[in-house]
Amino acid sequence: MAQVRELTDALWNGAISTTESHPFTAFAGLEEYRPGLAFVSSFANVGAARPDEGLVLVDTGSVFTGEMIRMQLRAWSPDAVHTAVFTHGHIDHATGVGAFEAEARPAGAAPLRVVAHRAVNARFERYKRTAGYNAAINARQFRSAGFAWPTEYRTPDALYDDRLDLDVGGVRFELHHARGETDDHTWLYIPAHRAVCTGDLFIWAAPNCGNPQKVQRFAGDQAVALERMAALDAEVMFPGHGPPIEGTGRVREALTTTAALLRHLHDETLARMNEGASLDAILASVRAPKELLERPWLRPVYDEPEFVVRNVWRQYGGWWDGDASRLKPARDEALALEVAALAGGANTLAARAAALSSQGEHALASHLVEWAARAAPDDAGITAARAEVYSRRADAETSLMAKGVYFDAANSRPR
Questions:
Q1: What's the pLDDT tens digit per position in 38-94?
Q2: Are residues 354 and 241 in the same domain?
Q3: CA terminus-to-terminus distance, the chain
């Protein structure tokens, strides 16, 4: 087949970019990378090993992709699934297991076993409490109206804390905990295949360690985990999104450069915090090294470095940004009405926003048009101007997260 390998080479060599083949939209099918080791390219990927006792899966996809993944794996092996490891509790990775549990099992075979880090259960409980919120933010992030957030989860049968070694049919699977994109992450090393499975610690994009609508992420810890993986000199790497990477040199380069990007953002932000800088000053001065962002696997097509900086600030400094006026701010509507009055009316603000937007000054234009819309919420002309400003800003962005927020703003009223 080689379709997945061809995708890797095309991305690595720059024949195509992750803008054209986004790591979250690549459905390239199943490919065997070693005898007894396969990879399914999906919205969220699945790795599969085939020891004598039965299949071991690294993630299971989602409720939407689980059956498709099951069918692809069945074309590769009829063996029952012995163990499924959740690399973390995100629903695109950990809710497809039902497709495999619905299969008939051989007589006398034990039930499918699910293994994960201990914090996965707390995540599932939080998801149940925040189902409405998560449905709303994921619909915004992925522009998927009508998305129903699940409220039932397959809890693990076995939990671990820092490290767990599993032996299935004489094949060892080394599970390691790491905080990064989530607090419940697991990455795996399979010595027999010299294969490392990263989960979402590597995703063929600038790391998802700053997501503005999600809970705390941990850039420094993720850098450490990536460096530990790189030290293994693995021959193949299965990422959480995007195609596998083969060859010790390529694997090491991909992991170390991703770690370097996170270390830079983490350490530079923390250094300026220790100097007493405000968040605004830090955002103006901390920039990701251009030579790293130009790597094919580090383009900011999903998350972006500015959001990582904000998350580092939140981890160490809390929610206040250092500006005294924003500690206990005026209501957004009151501020908008006052600014509009000073400017000579909401229409003046909207007109200036439109002019700035046409010149590419999207950030400033967004402030002005938002004030105008809050000061005159029933003005159809201002509503249309706001939609135009945010549509232009969305078109100018590279990350899926920023695009999702701005497209949503263009099609809704101020919240």
A1: 999 999 999 999 999 999 999 999 999 999 999 999 999 999 999 999 999 999 999
A2: no
A3: 49
